[in-house]
Write a structure and sequence with these properties.
254 residues, alpha+beta, 2 domains, five-stranded antiparallel β-sheet, 37% helix, elongated, signal, membrane, transmembrane helix, transmembrane
């Protein structure tokens, strides 16, 4: 194989490695590693050019500009493209990380209306269950959308107001069919800013438990207009007809 073919093969391998690496990183949400993936083939390519120049010096041959060598134009274009890609991706990642950090900082410093960890919900078909409905604004068991006979009894009166979440054996829904829920993609970062943005998107009134697992985030617009983030800690459907879900949640003013 000639030097020209060897260099072109190196360019092809470097380009393919970079393309696959970028695809893998974005598919697995590891975008902060993209620069490293680009830097590996780029440094390999550059080291090949430097090694060739060193060999020419050792043999007493003149070092020709890269563009003047056979196949050199392709190599130079590949190096320039990889370098430009590294710069663009690095800037994009830094801006993304900076924005995410800013959102997280705002979410952590923004005063919360309510915040709870390890809150249990259990689906129930009892006369006046207090375990399946949650008023996020009050962090208390809430009432459904329709008046119930049990509401007239002291033991059935809920401590909270209108619930935002009602747990059924196979789904979570709002009690009155209003679209207040948005399930983030699994693995997606949550927080006040993300939920605020999500609540301007297409909302739903129910989410199947098939789509929910440990680590899922649900953004909720409460009945008084607050912004809530519900983090799923545990989903247990192993106890017959009942479903047990444990959540953490934070509620912020809009």
């Amino acid at each position: 194989m000639t030097k020209n073919h060897t260099m072109l093969a190196a360019v092809a391998v470097a380009g393919a490695t970079t393309t696959v690496a970028i695809a893998v990183n974005f598919a697995t949400d590891l975008k902060t590693n993209v620069f490293a993936w680009i830097a590996v083939p780029l440094s390999t390519l550059l080291s090949g050019v430097v090694a060739e120049a060193a060999q020419r010096v050792a043999r007493g041959e003149p070092i020709r500009p890269l563009f003047a060598r056979p196949g050199g134009r392709c190599v130079a274009i590949a190096i320039s493209a990889l370098t430009l890609a590294a710069i663009i991706v690095s800037v994009t990642v830094m801006l993304t990380v900076s924005t995410s950090a800013g959102d997280a900082a705002e979410g952590s410093t923004r005063p919360v209306v309510q915040q709870e960890t390890g809150y249990p919900l259990t689906s129930s078909s009892g006369f006046c269950p207090k375990t399946d409905k949650l008023d996020l604004d009050a962090a208390q068991p809430g009432r459904g959308g329709q008046p119930q006979l049990g509401d007239l009894l002291d033991r059935c009166k809920m401590d909270g107001g209108l619930a935002e979440l009602v747990l059924e054996p196979d789904e979570i829904h709002t009690p009155h069919g209003s679209r207040q829920l948005f399930l983030l993609k699994h693995g997606e970062s949550a927080g006040y800013q993300r939920c605020l943005a999500a609540l301007t998107e297409r909302l739903t009134d129910r989410i199947s438990l098939r789509d929910i697992r440990q680590g899922s985030h649900i953004c909720v617009r409460t009945d008084v207009g607050n912004v809530a983030q519900v983090d799923v800690v545990k989903v247990d459907r192993s106890t017959g007809s009942e479903t047990h879900v444990v959540i953490d949640f934070s509620v912020w003013p809009p």
